[in-house]
Amino acid sequence: MHSALAAPHYDLATWRSGIPLLASLIPMNNCSQAPQTVWTRAAADRYLASWNESGMDWDVWMAEVQLARAEFARLINASPDEIAVFSSVSEATSAVASALDFTGQRRGVVVTEAEFPTIGHVWLAQERRGATVTWARLRDGAIPRDEYDRLVDDRTAIVSVSHGYYLNGSMQDIGALATSVHAQGALLYVDGYQTLGTVPVDVRAADVDFLAAGNLKFLMGVPGIAFLYVRRQLIDTLRPTVTGWFGRANPFAFDAKTLDWSSTAARFDAGTPPVINAYIARAGMQMINTVGVPSIRAWLEVLGQRLIDGGSERGLALHGTTDMRRKTATTAFIVADSHAVEAAMRAGGVLPSARGPVIRLSPHFYNTVEDVDTALDLLAATAGES
């Protein structure tokens, strides 16, 4: 069903003018990497100037990390003291896993087949500590709700889910999942990498226990920084063994013999934070928060539906659901050789993203209907030649 929205509820031309890459290429690979913008470049330059002019300015740099923490909190309706800072979602997930006790009755970990591999790897590594990992199965490119009814019980410690499936954009209702998981006494961990910045997320309304995401995709940042939300009521009960000096009550006490804990989610922090990445991450998240995620989602529903309908019209084989209410704007098409198709499309001026058997076309708030049509035309031509 087509949306009646003919243009986004923000100044598309102004935002596009701040993305230099658009002069030469059409980025449709936001599920993998955001383009550089004048605002994120300026943030990186601010750090480099500070480093060059002051040599060392740790008070200013740590303040910037705190501002990035607060910007992430704003994005998901959390408080800054519920946010920890990491270099990757792998590290964040490992820290959460390390804080759980798998020696009692509750040693079950339910993971879905829709997880990005790193999440599965982290939980499988906990089997050495007593965890028992079971898998919620994919069906028609999504995880059916009855899979959780089958697997989650009074032996389950935690359920780990992706909000948006990296392969085809299929989304799960994390609020409904939290209700059913909590009814069994288990915790819910959410990987929000493929949704944050494009789909409204309210961790309080959803009542999730943990949510992690990095910044290089839809949050318009770079690799090397990620954030973890920890529900406030859980913070004091958790002692992660994946830790470091910034997880202490006072990191600058320099006391190697005392393992005390920050009273906030900063107890999940590890070593020295990625400072330049925090500068860039904050600038990217400021862009998203300024545009407004509800407005972004409304426009991406238009572009996503255009991808679904346009792919069908061009004879492309869709992977996953055709219901935009149940997916992100990432749309996947099955091709014979995804990496060859990606290379050919890049040469033709469009940046897609290859994953296994599919090519993903993943627009963001700055993309246009014309971008989508150009990408589809090129995909249809190159897929036919592969």
Give a quick set of tags describing it.
seven-stranded mixed sheet, four-stranded antiparallel sheet, 2 domains, Aspartate Aminotransferase, domain 2, globular, Aspartate Aminotransferase, domain 1
Q: Please, could you describe this protein's structure?
A:
The chain has 386 residues and is of the alpha/beta class. The chain has helices at residues 12-17, 38-54, 58-76, 89-98, 117-125, 146-151, 174-183, 203-206, 232-235, 275-291, 293-313, 338-347, 369-385, and strands at residues 26-27, 83-86, 108-112, 132-136, 156-162, 187-191, 210-214, 226-230, 317-319, 331-334, 350-351, 353-355, 358-361. The strands form 3 sheets. Strands 2-8-7-6-5-3-4 form a 7-stranded mixed beta sheet, with helices on both faces. A 4-stranded antiparallel beta sheet has the order 9-10-13-12, with helices on one face. β12 and β13 (358-361) form a beta hairpin. The longest helix has 21 residues, at 293-313. 48% of the residues are buried.
What's the quick description here?
The chain is globular and about 65 Å long. The chain has helices at 12-17, 38-54, 58-76, 89-98, 117-125, 146-151, 174-183, 203-206, 232-235, 275-291, 293-313, 338-347, 369-385, and strands at 26-27, 83-86, 108-112, 132-136, 156-162, 187-191, 210-214, 226-230, 317-319, 331-334, 350-351, 353-355, 358-361. With 386 residues, the protein is of the alpha/beta class.
Report strand %: 5-15%
Radius of gyration: 21 Å
As for the number of domains, it is 2
CATH topology of the largest domain: the name is: Aspartate Aminotransferase, domain 2
Uncertain runs: none
Distance between the termini: 31 Å
**Going across the major beta sheet, what is the strand order?**
2-8-7-6-5-3-4
